[in-house]
Amino acid sequence: MVPAAAGLFGRVRRVHFVWRTERPTGWGELARELAERPQVLCIVNLKRHARELVARLSGLGAEGVLHVSTNLCPAHRQKVLAEVRRRLENGEPCRLVATQCVEAGVDLDFPVAYRALAPLEAIAQAAGRCNRNGRLAELGEVVVFRPAAEEGELLYPPGEYCKAASATEALLTAAGPAGLDLEDPETFRRYFRAFYELSKCTENWQKLHEALQALDFEALAREYRLIEQDAINVLVPYDIGEFERLRGEVAARGWLTAELRRRLQPHVVSLYRPKQGKDVWQVLEPLPAGRGEASEEWFVLVRPEAYDPELLGFLELEASWIA
Question: Fewer beta carbons under 10 A from the terminal one: N or C of the chain?
């Protein structure tokens, strides 16, 4: 077993899983359940699901409701995550609703985590945000649930993420009510074989196959993106003073230098490129690319009220799949 796999299985041993996937869970039911947990993390697949859940929790008057997704620019996310850690350390109410952007490289340690049904490695990564430091006298609890969906509603980002989630569902169907044993490496071998069969048309299939045989999750992540992104970058007014300064500097320079792009990055939201004619284009203005041309990748938000600096971040969600 490679070190990456060993680390993954070490994380899941600090928790026990509750597989609640045989029936769908509505957002109202889920919100009521989360409101009863003083410190809890809930990770969903889509940003509109996060917004729905935040609204439900706020409507219940739950304390310490926080939100993290890529609808928040990096500077905004870092501030929210700092508040999350402060609340967790001080034993204060903390109910964090997030998308999968918190599953890798984010140091969080909740006693309880909920994860919407997803690709199996995403579920295992979510487990790494629960009892992360092994401080609990007992195991942490990870509840895997199937969100309720209206007719025709997608539960996952399209493309390979959806295929990977389908591979998880296939394993769960075969496993029955007992759910899946994430401490058993064979579970992941079966999962990646199923995923490979769904995705073997990819040009990377040989490298993916080799990584699968070795259970090398880091190589799998490098060779395959579960969410394909054709993204645009939008400068947002999270910090209004810095927003105006940066916007003015770009206008004065007349084009986006590498140094300016670096400075813009903490104040930028990445969005899946909306289709032509979508309303969101009415609130975006392209930044200059030089030689009198407008950038096709970098934009500025020209309607400040479309960004909520307190909770939800960018509000023009449209069909944006990036988590």
Answer: N
